[in-house]
Amino acid sequence: MDTIFVGWVDLNPDEWVLYIHDDSSFLHSGKSQWSKASWIEAISSLNSLFQQRCQSQYLSGRKIAAAKNKGDENVAGNYLYIKFSDVRIDYVNYQLILAIHFIDPKTKAEIASIPVRPYYCDAYGITECLNAALGEVGKKVQVEVAGEPRGKKQ
Q1: What is the pLDDT of residue 22?
Q2: The whole model's pTM is what?
Q3: What is the CATH number of domain 3-146?
Q4: Diameter over CA atoms, the chain
C-alpha cells in the first residue's frame, strides 16, 4: 500500500467551551482567551501536525494524502483510507477516545478496524495532551499498516 489517505480526526468544534480552563500551550501562544474560533484553529493545527507525522514518521516511505477538513474524503487514487470515528475527548482523564477504520477506497469495504478505545497522554494542557494522544494513535496506525515500529524486533 504505497498511497494512503489519512482522514480527519474530528474534535468537535462545538465543545470548545469545555476547554476554557488554563491551557498552558494555548496561553503561551500569545492569545488571551479560548473561543470557538481558537478551538477550531487548534483542531486544524492538531490534524495538520498528525498528518505530517504520518508522512514523516509513522508511515514513512509511503505517499500520504490527507483530509483538509472534516468533510474531505477525496480518497481517489489511494490504496488505503484510514478513517477515524467516534472521536471524543475525556477531558477529566485527559484521553482521546476514537475508533480507527482501514478501508479499501475502491470497494469502500472495511478491511480491518480498531474498536473505540482511549489513547492516553502524559502532558499538561488540552492541546498538548491531544497532540501526545495523536502520537499514540499514529504508533497504532504504524503497527497495523507496516508492522512493528522501527527499532523494535518482531
Answers
A1: 45
A2: 0.85
A3: 3.40.50
A4: 48
